[in-house]
């Protein structure tokens, strides 16, 4: 159930996910937490046998593609616009149902589409977007880039996405080669920051990670060929790392929901192997990690919690994995002062569970334990 901006809601004796052996009395008023206090047990009174509940902050997915309906863009172009719009609205709904209340769209969705879906489909998902992405076709010098950047700003995007290297479409031995010159890359970052836009960089590894650190981008994405040395410098620089780890395991499985051809499956398998090492380096160095899925098709929207399973398999503790999806993710978006925590004054984006989320065996169990997803924002805040 989705509970939109409740005027007043109270929970007594609820557990906060990740805090053991304490219970809390929590109140929400007009979409904000107005009381978060430890419960005082009633003296001499046996506790009524009632259902226990847990609360966590709403989950932030820092790398989605809510506008895409197909793995191959050519397939989307064959659909009619009504059908695409309906599928996009369903992507919003599925994402919310699984407890994700904030998404950063890493390319594809325009602010106008977000407004439309929030208003006409009544889907209160908070979305930050980069609109269109800058890739190989834009490596045509500074003048061209300046024009493209101005077009992106004109859409109302808050982020600029740089496709700094190839991805699954590139052979493994060439995938870390830069798409832009160092001068072009530096120009994009400086221009975006001068216009109060944040920058996220798709990079599988290599020199573009160094450029990202030097230029002070806001986050790098994927980064499976990150080295130990780079992770130390990444930590020092404060640039966040959003690995999007689960999608490569999914893509590597020829019988999985993406059912890709053997060449692509093999590249994805190599990426997944490298990811476990890269995430280990980042964790040891103290890099700020952000939870992101890169989910982009109807078979994946709504299954975002699978990223937790992969992060845990790759060595994160429960607390680290949850922090990457809540407090740290909010900080990466520049919203750490009002999102990502169960705290008085914070926006009441939250998930209520019937079982302890820190004990969930896997994403399926976690997803099915969700009782209510609460969104604190007013419609106007999301538009
Ligand atoms: Zn992506």
From TrEMBL:
One Pfam family of this protein, by short name?
Amidohydro_1
SUPFAM superfamilies in alphabetical order: Composite domain of metallo-dependent hydrolases, Metallo-dependent hydrolases
Q: Where is the Amidohydrolase-related domain?
A: 55-374
Determine the domain of life of the protein's source: Bacteria
State what protein this is by name: Amidohydrolase family protein
Q: What is the lineage of its organism?
A: Bacteria, Bacillati, Bacillota, Bacilli, Bacillales
């Amino acid at each position: 159930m989705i509970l939109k901006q409740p005027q007043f809601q109270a929970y007594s004796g609820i557990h906060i996910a990740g805090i053991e052996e304490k219970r809390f009395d929590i109140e929400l008023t007009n979409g904000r937490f107005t009381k978060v206090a430890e419960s005082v047990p009633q003296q001499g009174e046996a506790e009524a046998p009632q259902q226990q509940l847990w609360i966590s902050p709403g989950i932030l997915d820092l790398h989605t593609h809510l506008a895409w309906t197909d793995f191959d863009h050519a397939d989307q172009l064959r659909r009619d616009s009504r059908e695409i719009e309906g599928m996009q609205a369903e992507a919003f709904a599925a994402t919310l149902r699984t407890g994700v209340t904030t998404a950063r769209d890493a390319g594809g969705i325009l602010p106008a589409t977000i407004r439309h879906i929030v208003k006409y489909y009544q889907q209160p998902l908070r979305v930050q977007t980069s609109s269109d992405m800058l890739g190989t076709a834009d490596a045509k010098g500074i003048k061209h880039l300046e024009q493209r950047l101005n077009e992106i700003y004109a859409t109302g995007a808050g982020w600029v996405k740089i496709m700094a290297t190839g991805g699954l479409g590139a052979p493994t031995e060439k995938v870390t080669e830069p798409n832009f010159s160092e001068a072009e890359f530096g120009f994009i970052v400086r221009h975006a920051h001068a216009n109060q836009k944040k920058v996220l960089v798709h990079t599988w590894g290599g020199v573009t990670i160094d450029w990202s650190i030097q230029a002070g981008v806001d986050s790098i994405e994927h980064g499976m060929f990150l080295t130990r040395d780079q992770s130390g410098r990444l930590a020092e620089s404060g640039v966040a790392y959003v690995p999007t780890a689960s999608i490569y395991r999914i893509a590597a499985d020829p019988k999985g929901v993406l059912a890709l051809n053997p060449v692509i499956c093999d590249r994805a398998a190599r990426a997944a192997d490298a990811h476990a090492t890269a995430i280990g380096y980042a964790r040891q160095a103290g890099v700020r990690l952000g939870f992101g899925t890169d989910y982009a098709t109807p078979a994946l929207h709504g299954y975002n919690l699978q990223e937790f399973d992969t992060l845990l398999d790759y060595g994160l503790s429960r607390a680290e994995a949850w922090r990457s999806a809540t407090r740290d993710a909010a900080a990466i978006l520049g919203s750490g002062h009002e999102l990502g925590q169960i705290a008085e004054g914070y926006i009441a984006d939250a998930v209520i569970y019937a079982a302890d989320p820190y004990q969930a065996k896997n994403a399926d169990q976690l997803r099915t334990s969700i009782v209510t997803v609460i969104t604190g924002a007013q419609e106007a805040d999301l538009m």
